[in-house]
Amino acid sequence: MPLNHAAPATPSPSRRHALATFGATAVLGACAAVAPGPADPVLRVEASPAPGGQAPFRHIATSVGRLAVQDLPPLPGAAATGRQTLVLWPSILADHGIYRAQIPVWRQRHRVIVIDGPGHGASGPAPAGFSMADCADAMVGILDALGVDGPVIPVGTSWGGLVGGEFALAYPRRTRALVMLNTPVFVAPQGPSLSDRFVVWGARWLHGTTLYSDGVARAFFLPSTRARGGAQLDAFHRHLRDADGAALALATRSVLLDRAPLAPRLAGIEVPTLFVAGEHDGMYPLGALRQAAASLPHGRFVALPTAHISAVDAPEGVTRLVAAFIDTLS
Q1: Dihedrals φ, ψ of 219, to 5°?
Q2: Residue 108's closest CA among 78, 88, 71?
Q3: Inside any domain, residue 106
Q4: CATH number of the domain to which 254 belongs
């Protein structure tokens, strides 16, 4: 079912059911985390309430849309020694909620800036398809809007890891270090698979269904994580159910189908880099990721017993691993 950039016609109910049935198994193993010109200047910053009494989102206009940002200062009493600014960007088909366990701990010492990608979470839609470099430019615009001019540490999962890699390549003086979690730095030489295309199509037409969200969850999380359930998994499913399908599909297509490979350029990332992969990630083979990460000049590769979203499957392990990595920078 080839896709193009034009808006797809609404399928008939019978065809929609047939496609959903046909793609059910594909989506279980294919949901993955990965245009305009240069980034436009930030146009405005608008504050809006965040749920649960958290710090408010700031909606900052960038070339990839109005992105929701939370700027979380270190908690009161945090030591100034070794303080860094972390910039978090999540996976496709997820929002900042995947960092639910990490944010409170990292804030004990560091400033944490959290960004929802276009078409995800509280962010608005992208105006058009985009590249990972466009997202990196958007990150720079957000930092400028927040008055952050010193070097930062991008911490990205999947899509977010790709954005962080592009940021480190394009803005080395603004990058202190880099954390790439579960990041698909390569692309298939034969091009996107049928199952990849189904993931994008499903993001448009099936995102509100249990079929689709359960399929994404099977691809993203360990069986034990799904069995555990809880507020974080509930929020993950709710995010997909409540998403704007057109905006979600555009972003998913840009990341999953249209992205350029990052692996051939990893050798150009000069900052210390922590590269984390999941031993049970069925979408991206551990050996291929290990081989790609070996080209990082100052890289450290760590495999965790997780699926695709290590921050959720192994929340304490990821929290400690990243904190310890940051401590080595002091």
Answers
A1: -75, -30
A2: 78
A3: yes
A4: 3.40.50.1820
